[in-house]
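Notes from hallway chat w/ T.B., transcribed later so I don't forget. T.B. wanted the structure written out for a chain they're using in a teaching module, and asked if we could keep both sequence and structure tokens in one place. Agreed to drop them here.
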Amino acid sequence: MSKSDMKTITVIGSGLIGRSWAMVFASGGYSVKIYDNQPGQAVKAITEIRKQLQELEEAHMLRGELTAAQQLSLLSSYDDLAQALEGAFFVQECVFEQLEVKQSVFQDVERLVGKDVILSSSTSCLVPSNVFSKVHNRSRCLVSHPVNPPYYVKLVELVPHPETEASVMDATHAVMTKVGQVPVCLKREIDGFALNRVQAAIIAESWRLVKDGVISVKDIDLVMSEGLGMRYAFIGPMETMHLNAPEGLEDYMRRYGPGIARVLTSFGPVPDFCGEGAKEIVNEMCELIPRDRQHLSARMERRDQLLMGLSELKKDH
């Protein structure tokens, strides 16, 4: 496929993730065709995107070199899958996190596109070998797992199917880089990918510390936001260790490795996140932020504003 043919991307699914992906791809200058199997939903998605792009432009937070109007002109909506796929070189699926639904979508897509079209799933917890098990040509398939919300958090995990060709990974990495995302490539598939495995470890130990009466919900969040998170916003755990000892990572592990190993052996079993014992933690969280739509929406908006501001700051570093 020549570069002249690599101008159109199809986004399947017009929910939050689908809309975010459409905005990201349009910010990089791609023509984006949004498809939803619910009639009228793709049109509504563009209406919502128009509002978001205008607000971002007014706040001087719009991504890319194009104006909001120029980016909006790159978007089109479809209720017909064949029309939505016509001319696309890359397909980003963003439907419900249900294996059978995704498998069915990719079966339909494969019948309608050429053999060189890259098929990418936004799944956050389903491995590629399952998502693409009913696709015949799996060499052009991968997971592109974004962090929610993708427009404000730029990391995207690229996870190959066991049969994915290296050229497909490279091409997807190039697309993601062009649109301003920060792609990381996993060398093989693994349950939870990388981000969710690290996140699960943090969640589990945070939950245990609160459940065991060591610390409050409010304070464990401060441990991250005002402690570890301050460093991790700019450097990861490996570099943090490397910089925290006079002679680098090997010196760090020589000094602190035994203590880390001792602490790790004290970790308890995987917590019960939904049982009777979880109610106290849930109630404590809801005292801080009530779970009604008004309060949650306000905090989500605050989160997105903070993420945009941090993203702008990171540009200069």
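Follow-up for T.B.: The chain has a mean pLDDT of 95. Might be a good example for the class.
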